[in-house]
Design goal:
7 helices; 7-stranded parallel sheet; globular; Rossmann fold
Length: about 260
Amino acid sequence: MYLKKFDLTGRRAYVTGGGRAIGLSCCEALAEAGAHVIIGDISEAVAEEGRDYLTSKGYKADIDIMDVTNTEQVRASAEKMAKDGGVDILVNNAGIARSETPAETVEDEHWLNVIDVNLNGTFWCCREFGKQMLAKKNGVIVNIGSMSGFIVNKPQEQAYYNASKAAVHHLTKSLAAEWGARGVRINAVAPTYIATPLNEFVKSKPDMYDAWINGTPMARLGETEEIASVVLFLASDASSLMTGSIVLADGGYTCW
């Protein structure tokens, strides 16, 4: 009875930023559970690499080249997916950080870029794919937030990133309240520091790395598959009573 709730056979899942790192692990998890996965990515090369990886594992995946900050591209992608059978699961994973800039020196372009990708891009995708889900009264959306939406990270300054992820969390709750009775569930995952290319820079900053690890009760970075496992749970019927939840997967970081 319970394992069947994780079965996604016959469902279509669209993952933004799905070509690598957390996004690719999400694609793999959803595909392993039986979903037909579409890798949405701004880079065709990255998307193709992701598809090749999934194909090598025996999974079928399609790619869709789309910039989440471009409303016309998001709308076109959603319409294209609708013609191909629609999307049952949307994972809003695309995001950027651009950390280590004190608030007083943040340029307008820097602030707007991070907000545009992390918050606006998430909303544009929720809006366009959500319309289709609302029309058929069924669908699941999983947003990738961050523990940074709950705490202020140290030692790196990143007010813009923290604000964007806190906004993603509240957007998740707001849409859940609007759409819950209309058949669409929406939740978010809030990860800790994950071993991804985005965080590669910390290897050359031992003081920062030590601060990250010493601030985490589990004393390690997370792995992409650990976030993908939570995404799979939220995307499946195993979480059927959950909407508007922000699930911390932070190695205990926010306990202190």
